[in-house]
Amino acid sequence: MANLKLQNLYKMYDQGNGKKDGVYAVNNLNLEIEDGTFLGILGPSGCGKSTTLRMIAGLEEITKGEIAIGDMVINDIHPKERKIGLAFEDYALYPPLSVYNNIAFCLKANKVDKKEIDQRVRKIAKTMKVEELLDAKVEGLSGGQKQRVNIARALVRNPRILLLDEPLSHLDGKMRQILRGEIKRLHKEIKCTTILVTHDQMEALSLADHIAIMKLGVLQQYGTPDEIYNDPVNIFVADFIGEPPMNLLPVTVQKADGGFCFLLLDGTRIKAPAKFHSILEDGQQYTMGIRPTSIVIADEKDYDAQFTVDVFENLGDERIISIRILEDFLTIVIEDMLVFQKGSRIYVKMKEDLLYLFDRETGERVREQGQRNGG
């Protein structure tokens, strides 16, 4: 086993006439993935995540840059010689064949000994909990069963790296949740470097040790799920991660009572955390970000802001409060057993360490003095 390294990786597609279109699907991507890591590559459609996966697998030609496993550059190594297992979102199974023969297909093609094939197929079938389906035809299987067979077929090759391309996207919500748990268990059991490509933040946050977030072919941030969630480097990452999404509101800095406050577009004032005082100046404009769960109900003796409730939703285990700020909304999620009506006046405190400022022009995170941007 060895680290996987992507160095200055670029991919530009042809227009169909042999000419490049001038737009990089993957643009100067640099990642070093330690052996045994579970990496989630996350981003919206068209961000370059599947293209990256296909270049690692050898199914896409690299425009520029290098991919290396350990000290070996694999750019020119044939896909089947890379010892990489790949499971696609659409299963790509062979309907006329049984589950057993689908899992064994690549081993038979490589003329592996029959006894070894049988041992490996039955072992991986047990791991993926499809051992009772080995004699069944795949066309009669459910979506979840097909995906288990698909992953088993990738694992039976004893890959150094397992690549999963949107493996749960065709499944319903309950089956997605079940298979998420199975994939997590599988990774801990086989200890194989695993790379999951997904547009679903819940998949990435729940499964991956580290997450790489991409936008338009460019890596935005790389870190643990906690780092990505609690320490976003820009507005894109802050907005992409979290459900409900982070509140992002334009504010103007105003001097107040020996400190500063943030003035919202409707005139509402929010007390500015002391951590920002050394960098704030009267009249500056920022985008303020705070997650709905980082706002708590307070009393009128000690609060950072006061609002009027526009919509209140009781969801049982949590309550969602929506505040209208002209054309925008501020969302608050609380677990307190409280009930509010439209028009109720509420007082809130902001969790200072989880309140962020972003540059209005670049979208980059504004760090309080002494901090540096991560990612």
Automatic annotation (TrEMBL):
Keyword Zinc-finger recorded: no
Domain named ABC transporter: residues: 4-241
Keyword Translocase attached: yes
Keywords of the record: ATP-binding, Cell membrane, Membrane, Nucleotide-binding, Translocase, Transport
Pfam families (UniProt xref): ABC_tran (PF00005), OB_MalK (PF17912)
GO MF term list: ATP binding
Protein name per UniProt: Sn-glycerol-3-phosphate ABC transporter ATP-binding protein UgpC
Origin species: Blautia parvula
Gene this chain is encoded by: ugpC_1
